[in-house]
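Structure first, sequence second, as always.
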C-alpha cells in the first residue's frame, strides 16, 4: 500500500504494483522493483557476471590511485564517477580469456591514469637493490616540465602511488619503497601529470618487476 502525501498529483510513499516511491536526499523518487528471473542464467550471462567480477576485484585495491588518475575522465556533473569510468574502461578494453574461456584482467591493457598529454616513452624499468629504477626518453617530452607519477601494484593485494618524485625532463628516477623489498610480483604503471593545469597523460605499462 502507498500513501499519497499531497493529493492525487503529489508524490507517494510505499508500493503500487511493481513501483516503489520514497524520499532520497529531500527528493521524491520512484523506481520499479527488480525483475525476478526464475530460469537458469545463460552462458553469456554467466560470463558477463564473471567479467564484472574480475574488473571489480582488480580495481578494489587501487581505488585511491584510480580516483586520482581518472578524475578528469568522469563527465562534469554526472552521476558517473572516476571509479565507474575505470570499470567501464577495463570492462571494454582490458579483459582477456584463458584456455578454459575464463575472463581475467590483462595488466598490460590497463590504464590507471588517463588524459590527453603525451605519455612517457619508457626505456627501462627494473627492480634493483630493493629499489625501482625507471628511465624514459626525456627528449620526447617536447620541452615541457611536468611531474612523473608511478603506480606499483601487487594485484589484488596492495598498491603504492608515487606522485611527483621526478620531473619529465630529468629522464630517470629511483623509488625506494618497502614494496620492492618483497618477493611479490609488482606491476608498474608510469605517466605524466601537469600539476599546474591538472592534466594527465595516459599511463604506460612498465612491466612486472
Amino acid at each position: 500500500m502507498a500513501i499519497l502525501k499531497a493529493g492525487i498529483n503529489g508524490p507517494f510513499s510505499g508500493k503500487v504494483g511493481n513501483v516503489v516511491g520514497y524520499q532520497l536526499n529531500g527528493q521524491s523518487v520512484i523506481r520499479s522493483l527488480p525483475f525476478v528471473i526464475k530460469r537458469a542464467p545463460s552462458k553469456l550471462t554467466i560470463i558477463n557476471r564473471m567479467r564484472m567480477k574480475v574488473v571489480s576485484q582488480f580495481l578494489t585495491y587501487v581505488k585511491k590511485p584510480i580516483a586520482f588518475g581518472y578524475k578528469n575522465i568522469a563527465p562534469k556533473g554526472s552521476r558517473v564517477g572516476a571509479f565507474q569510468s575505470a570499470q567501464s574502461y577495463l570492462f571494454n578494453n582490458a579483459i582477456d580469456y584463458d584456455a578454459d574461456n575464463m575472463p581475467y584482467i590483462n595488466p598490460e591493457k590497463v590504464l590507471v591514469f588517463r588524459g590527453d598529454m603525451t605519455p612517457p616513452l619508457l626505456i627501462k624499468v627494473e627492480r634493483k637493490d630493493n629499489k625501482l629504477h625507471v628511465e624514459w626518453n626525456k627528449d620526447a617530452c617536447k620541452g615541457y616540465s611536468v611531474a612523473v607519477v608511478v603506480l606499483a601494484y601487487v594485484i589484488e593485494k596492495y598498491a603504492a602511488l608515487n606522485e611527483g618524485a621526478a620531473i619529465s625532463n630529468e629522464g630517470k628516477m629511483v623509488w625506494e619503497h618497502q614494496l620492492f623489498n618483497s618477493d611479490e610480483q609488482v606491476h608498474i604503471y608510469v605517466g605524466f601529470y601537469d600539476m599546474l593545469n591538472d592534466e594527465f597523460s595516459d599511463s604506460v605499462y612498465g612491466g612486472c618487476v
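Margin note: Residues 43-60 form the longest helix (18 residues).
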